[in-house]
């Protein structure tokens, strides 16, 4: 028996060709690990091309998983374990692997032909370049082939089982049970693929057990999570479930108009299966038709929703303006990706903040909110609907590729405890005016066509106050612009909260940087630094205490995955000279990068 | 057609054209062909036996797209070219509503060509009234996608280089299940076409020749003037032979090509092509017939039955609900792989 070493947390990365099934084994390791009871966070990283040429750097697909027996907030800065299925995967990922980390390679792929494709000049398994890591060589392909002998499979199909061999190996290494994956394979594959994948999985496990491959086995005990029922969830899934919850809590159908776009399409896929839950989906001919149909549905008494990403947002601008003018509820979810233009479709960024805030013609204010973690996407999707129907306005919910595809355990909410979102359709024809407002929220009435006596017309031309008739008068236009702005400003949002130490250095984030900031602040505080974290989930309007809270700190550090968009807004709104920490690499912040910035800020202050 | 229903709350009387006239001042130019179309539509709406509150008028941008403001029903003046998208959202979510799109040659075929195509392909059960005046009116006189080649306009001082669309041929190419044509001043025929469009289950595409007396005055005169229309228009009737010019001429097929024949000398109406609205191949022939080679077909060129998008959309919802009778949020959230922490 190998000695078992207990670890608090592990970061493991699987890397291979896009066709090697790395996302599959990544998700399987994740599900198994979730059921074991660890806290976890995942980060799939794949190319935009479906199948870039095999063996090339462009085709490398990776999946990183951080699992732990304590609370964690990110998928981890650098892996301690790297499984590389070919030389290209090794080359693309090796510099991230911690020194002394475990490197498991599919050795049989380390041949000249593969080196050529990956642009490698000498065999890294022999030239000493990997001496800093604990190298374990396994002929995964050959061993899988031997495992499936006798099954009626072609060469290619046999080759496709090797990812399960690698998974079996890793399950042994971290003492994970095979049952979850066995169940999944049995439900997912037909014979003979079912049998082949099962054999490969078990063969990998048995091989690690039998052969003296690893000097140790590891255990990561279950995390001490808050009691409750948990499931693992990705951000896009949480958005979908949040919208379903909104349909239940409003009693009003949700109508999703969408056009497929990376990385938002999974929301369309998932919601298309929820017709029984009063959520219907329409795959439109383009981004504009998608939002047009959604607004049409809102006009008809459904909650119109759109899901898209940056380039799609650009196309929706005019229609969002119409929803502003006609004051209909509408939720637009932008799963941000690297831009501009097509940019980096599968990579993450937060560079659509300005677009969300201001990216329309005219004075066209909308509510803007942002989710901070995969789990938070559930609550923020519900929030988006609450605001849209309460204030009769478009709401932009910003998420991004990092939390959309990343996952973490979710302590499921008590469904009955989620408050209802009251929606009242106006039906009284007495003295009806389409633009008469609720005095508190300034929302106009929502009227379903088909309601007798309330026939009226709306449209994109400026409205007369109260009547909603077409009107071109100068003072009326100014009044309406101000009313539309005031309506958004009056949206009730919770106060901004501080985590950590008051009055010195505040790290202020928004959106998906939450995990990295929180981890960095925790670490800095454990090292004696006075620092706090606040996270803006409401960008427009911002919490009422924002200005006061920010001013109570000597310095405000603002990390964002863009060139400083929130910093600019804070300067414009509050005359606040914050320190911007921008990053636009298509990758999330590492904890280390924010920690270093915290220390740099301290040193700069000390040097003054 | 269903029986007449009450006009609204407590009004058991039948509707009249006046019920569909809104209180808004009409801002079309005096003499515009749009007035005639609005008037025929309001007349037809009152006859359809549908409560006024169940009518929804949807438009894009352009002169024709002001239409919803002038109809006392529910109306939505949306954005340029996108009315079909909005209408699809309305009709899919509320199939019981009678949804009408008012659009123009620029709105439906230039900026909104894409959406028009997909509305027809999907067969969403709405009526499209395309006001074709072969010019851009609201932007003050540039050529449109139905303007003739060589047309001199503000943006084409040396003549337009664009080859025009034939709207009904375009619609047919988009798999439209109902195509028809009329003219703003042909009041009776226009109302018949609008009624037929309403009765059709599916996307009904109606091209209406409309005169813009400011920027393209008399664009259709050579076809529709009282003196020439008998000769230059072919009024179609299902099951009837295609004859025109007071019964002196007819249309025959020569192979796949239509030809104009003089009747008499042994040739009678019985020798002419019989109009069959349901024949998609004949529809192709009719949709391409144009003056001066042929008289222009008027009336319903084609209608065929195909399940509508909105009906199927809602049938899937009903099927899903029947298959999951006890759907609940709790079951959805707590279903699948979960684990408990004590």
Describe this structure in words.
Chain A has three domains: 216 residues, Pyruvate-ferredoxin oxidoreductase, PFOR, domain III (Pyruvate-ferredoxin Oxidoreductase, domain 3), CATH 3.40.920.10; 187 residues, Thiamin diphosphate (ThDP)-binding fold, Pyr/PP domains (Rossmann fold, 3-Layer(aba) Sandwich); 109 residues, Rossmann fold (3-Layer(aba) Sandwich), CATH 3.40.50.920. The model of chain A has no long low-confidence stretch (mean pLDDT 96). Chain A is of the alpha/beta class and 608 residues long. In chain A, helix 4 crosses helix 6, helix 4 packs across helix 8 and helix 9 runs parallel beside helix 14. Chain B has a domain of 218 residues: Rossmann fold. Helix content of chain B is 30%, strand content 18%. Chain B is built from twelve helices and twelve strands. In chain B, helix 1 packs across helix 7 and helix 6 runs antiparallel to helix 10. The N terminus of chain B is likely disordered. Classes of the chains: A alpha/beta (608), B alpha/beta (342). At the A-B interface, helix 1, strand 9, helix 9, helix 11 and helix 12 of A face strand 1, strand 2, helix 3, helix 5 and helix 11 of B. Strand 9 of chain A pairs antiparallel with strand 12 of chain B.
How are the secondary structure elements laid out?
The complex is a heterodimer of chains A (608) and B (342).
Chain A: E1 4-6, E2 9-17, H1 22-36, E3 39-45, E4 60-68, E5 81-84, H2 87-93, E6 102-106, H3 112-118, E7 134-138, H4 140-147, H5 155-159, H6 162-173, H7 179-188, H8 193-210, E8 217-219, E9 228-234, H9 235-250, E10 254-258, H10 265-271, E11 279-283, H11 287-299, E12 303-308, H12 310-326, E13 330-336, H13 353-358, E14 367-370, H14 376-391, E15 394-400, H15 401-405, E16 407-411, E17 457-459, H16 474-489, E18 499-500, E19 505-510, H17 514-526, E20 531-536, E21 538-540, H18 546-551, E22 555-560, H19 565-574, E23 579-582, H20 591-607
Parallel strand pairs in A: 1-8, 2-5, 5-6, 6-7, 10-11, 10-12, 12-13, 13-15, 14-15, 19-20, 19-22, 22-23
Antiparallel strand pairs in A: 2-4, 3-4, 9-16, 14-21, 18-20
Helix pairs in contact in A: 1-6, 1-7, 4-6, 4-8, 6-8, 7-8, 9-10, 9-14, 11-12, 17-20
Chain B: H1 34-47, E1 55-59, H2 67-70, E2 74-77, H3 83-93, E3 98-104, H4 105-111, H5 113-122, E4 127-132, H6 167-173, E5 178-183, H7 187-199, E6 204-209, H8 221-224, H9 229-232, E7 233-235, E8 243-244, E9 249-254, E10 257-262, H10 280-288, E11 296-303, H11 309-323, H12 329-334, E12 338-341
Parallel strand pairs in B: 1-2, 1-3, 3-4, 4-6, 5-6, 7-11
Antiparallel strand pairs in B: 5-11, 8-9, 9-10
């Amino acid at each position: 028996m190998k000695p078992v070493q207990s670890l608090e947390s592990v970061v493991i990365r699987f890397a291979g060709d896009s066709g090697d099934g790395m996302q599959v084994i990544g998700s399987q390791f994740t599900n198994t690990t979730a059921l074991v009871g660890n806290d976890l966070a995942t980060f799939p990283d794949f190319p935009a091309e479906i199948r870039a040429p095999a063996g090339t750097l462009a085709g490398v697909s990776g999946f990183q998983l951080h699992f732990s027996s304590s609370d964690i907030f990110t998928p981890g800065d650098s892996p301690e374990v790297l499984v590389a299925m070919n030389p290209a995967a090794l080359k693309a990922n090796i510099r991230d692997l911690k020194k002394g980390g475990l490197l498991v390679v599919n050795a049989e792929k380390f041949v000249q032909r593969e080196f050529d494709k990956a642009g490698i000049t000498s065999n890294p398994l022999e030239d000493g370049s990997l001496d800093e890591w604990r190298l374990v060589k396994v002929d995964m392909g050959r061993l899988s082939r031997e495992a499936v002998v006798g099954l009626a499979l072609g060469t290619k199909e046999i080759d496709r089982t090797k990812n399960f061999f690698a998974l079996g190996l890793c399950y042994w290494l971290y003492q994970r049970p095979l049952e979850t994956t066995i169940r999944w394979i049995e439900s997912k594959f037909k014979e003979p693929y079912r049998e082949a994948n099962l054999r490969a999985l078990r063969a990998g496990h048995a091989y690690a057990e039998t052969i003296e491959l690893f000097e140790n086995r590891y255990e990561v005990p279950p995390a001490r999570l808050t009691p409750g029922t948990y499931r693992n969830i990705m951000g896009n899934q949480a958005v979908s479930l949040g919208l379903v919850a909104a349909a239940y809590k409003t009693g009003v159908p949700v109508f999703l108009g969408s056009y497929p776009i990376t990385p938002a399409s999974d929301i369309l896929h998932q919601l298309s299966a929820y017709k029984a839950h009063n959520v219907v989906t329409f795959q439109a001919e383009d981004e504009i038709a998608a939002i047009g149909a959604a607004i049409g549905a809102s006009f008809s008494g459904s909650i119109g929703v759109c899901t898209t990403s940056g380039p799609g947002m650009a196309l929706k601008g005019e229609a969002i303006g119409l929803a502003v003018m006609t004051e209909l509820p509408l939720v637009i979810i932008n799963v941000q990706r690297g831009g501009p233009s097509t940019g980096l479709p599968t990579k993450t960024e937060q560079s659509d903040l300005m677009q969300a805030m201001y990216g329309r013609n005219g004075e066209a204010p909308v509510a803007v909110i942002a989710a901070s973690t995969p789990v938070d996407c559930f609550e923020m999707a519900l929030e988006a609907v609450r605001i849209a129907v309460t204030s009769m306005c478009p709401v932009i919910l910003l998420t991004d590729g990092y939390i959309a595809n990343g996952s973490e355990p979710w302590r499921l909410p008590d469904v009955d405890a989620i408050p209802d979102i009251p929606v009242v359709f106006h039906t009284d024809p007495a003295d009806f005016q389409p633009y008469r407002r609720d005095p508190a929220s300034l929302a106009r009435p929502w009227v379903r066509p088909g309601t007798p006596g309330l026939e009226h017309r709306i449209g994109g031309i400026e409205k007369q106050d109260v009547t909603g008739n077409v009107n071109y008068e100068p003072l009326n236009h100014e009044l309406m612009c101000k009313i539309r702005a005031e309506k958004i400003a009056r949206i009730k949002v919770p106060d901004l909260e501080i985590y950590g130490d008051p009055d010195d250095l505040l790290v202020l984030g928004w959106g998906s940087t939450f995990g990295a900031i929180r981890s960095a602040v925790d670490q800095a505080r454990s090292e004696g630094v006075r620092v706090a974290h606040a996270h803006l989930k409401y960008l427009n309007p911002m919490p009422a205490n924002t200005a006061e809270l920010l001013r109570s700190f000597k310095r405000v550090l603002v990390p964002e995955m863009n060139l400083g968009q929130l910093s600019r807004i804070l300067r414009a709104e509050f005359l606040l000279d914050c320190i911007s920490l921008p990053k636009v690499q298509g990758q999330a912040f590492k904890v280390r990068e924010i920690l270093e910035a915290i220390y740099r800020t301290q040193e700069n202050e000390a040097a003054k | 057609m269903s029986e007449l229903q009450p006009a609204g709350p407590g009004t058991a009387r039948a509707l009249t054209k006046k019920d569909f006239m809104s209180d808004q001042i009409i801002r079309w130019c005096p003499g515009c062909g749009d007035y005639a179309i609005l008037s025929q539509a309001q007349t037809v709406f009152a006859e359809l036996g549908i409560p006024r509150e169940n009518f929804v008028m949807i438009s894009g941008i352009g002169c024709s797209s002001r239409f919803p403001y002038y109809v006392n029903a529910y109306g939505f003046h949306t954005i340029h070219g996108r009315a079909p998208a909005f209408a699809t959202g309305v009709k899919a979510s509320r199939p019981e509503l009678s949804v009408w799109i008012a659009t123009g040659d620029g709105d439906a075929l230039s900026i909104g060509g894409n959406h028009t195509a997909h509305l027809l392909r999907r067969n969403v059960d709405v009526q499209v009234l395309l006001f074709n005046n072969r010019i851009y009116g609201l932007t003050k006189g540039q050529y449109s996608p139905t303007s003739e080649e060589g047309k001199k306009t503000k943006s084409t001082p040396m003549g337009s280089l664009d080859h025009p669309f034939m709207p009904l041929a375009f619609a047919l190419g988009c798999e439209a299940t109902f195509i028809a044509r009329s003219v703003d001043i042909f009041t009776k025929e226009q109302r018949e076409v609008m009624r037929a469009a309403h009765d059709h289950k599916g996307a009904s595409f109606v091209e209406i020749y409309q005169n813009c007396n400011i920027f393209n005055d008399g664009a259709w005169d050579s076809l529709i003037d009282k003196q020439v229309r008998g000769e230059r228009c072919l009024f179609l009737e299902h099951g009837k032979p295609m004859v025109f010019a007071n019964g002196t001429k007819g249309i025959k097929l020569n192979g796949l090509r239509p030809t104009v024949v003089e009747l008499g000398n042994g040739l009678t109406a019985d020798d002419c092509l019989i109009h069959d609205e349901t024949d998609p191949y004949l529809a192709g022939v009719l949709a391409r017939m144009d003056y001066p080679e042929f008289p222009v077909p008027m009336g319903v060129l084609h209608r065929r039955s195909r399940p509508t998008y909105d009906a199927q959309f809602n049938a899937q919802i009903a099927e899903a609900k029947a298959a999951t009778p006890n759907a609940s949020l709790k079951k959805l959230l707590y279903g699948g792989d979960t684990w408990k922490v004590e």
